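Support reply, case 0932

Customer input (verbatim):
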Amino acid sequence: MKFVIIAIGSRGDVQPFLALGKGLKEKGHHIRICAMDVFQKNIEQEGFEYAYMAGDARKIMLRLIGNRVTPLEYFGSLPDLLNPVKTEFLKNIEEACQGMDAVLYSTLGSVAYHVGEKLGLPCFRCFFAPQDPTVEFPAMTAPTLLYGGWYNKLTYKCGDILWSHATRRLLNSWRTQMGLRKIKPFEFPYRKMNGKPIPTLYAYSHILAPKPKDYGEHQYVTGFWIKEMNQDWTPDEKLQQFLDRGTKPIYIGFGSTVGGNFNRTLKIIFESLKKTGQRAVLSAGWRNLDGIDLPTNVMEIGNVPHEWLFPQMLAVSHHGGAGTTAAGVRAGVPGIIVPFGGDQLYWGDRVYQMGIGTKPIWCNELSVENYTKAIQDVVDNQQMKDRASIVGAMLRSENGTANAIAVIENELNINN
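Our regenerated output:
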């Protein structure tokens, strides 16, 4: 079969699809990935067909994740991001879906829902954190209040209304051009198509985030989709020497985050490392370290496979994106999570509640005092280290990619 994947956002929104695409390709399926051009090279290097998508991935991350972006700010930013490229962007989505047999899409990629409806294509929602209503916990961007199940479900309803209002204004004219009816006020069509639930793949582990009891049979918690490391990869001599000549360092990485005061954050991190006597490897991600002098106990690294690097770390400190969280937990080392927005606080809380990391610290609340305390907690807490090792072994025994492929082929009645 021919699958098209619509992935909008950061590297963390694309990387899991590279793992899934590889597995599907090995089963004989054709894979086309539609994403912004910053990811074109990675997609084509993996042997997939690339389809262009208009837009600026960095600008999307700044406006939609940024620094504790509120739900109102999030949905208020959608028109500003889409309107300048709207005609080209929507055309890109339509063209990417032409000639395909099924569509898989991430959260922001759900614009493909409308093309799937027009073309009669089976769709799969692919999410990296819980996004469907449940009585067990509130929506990720809502405050956690002790009002029980009715409040938790209400937070999702509010999110649905905001999403529906934004997409109605942006996409109803496009829907009518495609011969589809307009989305009605307060209508949230995205969980069903033609009256039937759309299969939803949650690309994370039930060990870290159990499936809510009120989720349905069409909602699958598959396990993380992990892209396997190239076994021929070797570190450069400078990195290997840094690792060999001292105690285990802390990994510090920012992924695709672009919000917050980067210089302020670095100063806090460097001072905290000094106070605790720890070393670190620093991955700037989409940030720029030009003009910044690193202390001798910190080494900047480039694109080093997490699967190779993280098991050699004392701890993994990062923004809390689902992909980096998965890699850190799978490595069996404690986490120190400093979220910026989106689903990052959710994953920080899960790591903390599991006893495999420190309490998450919002990026704009980061201080020398609380970051130093977090580092010292990791150094001193043997129970946390032991627990992280156990949970890591459990996660490494899973194969979320294979589970997801089995679900997809079963839903499409593909017999291999």
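We compared this against your earlier run and they match. Two observations from our side: The chain has 15 helices and 14 strands. The CA atoms of residues 30 and 97 lie 13 Å apart. Please reopen the case if you see a mismatch on your end.
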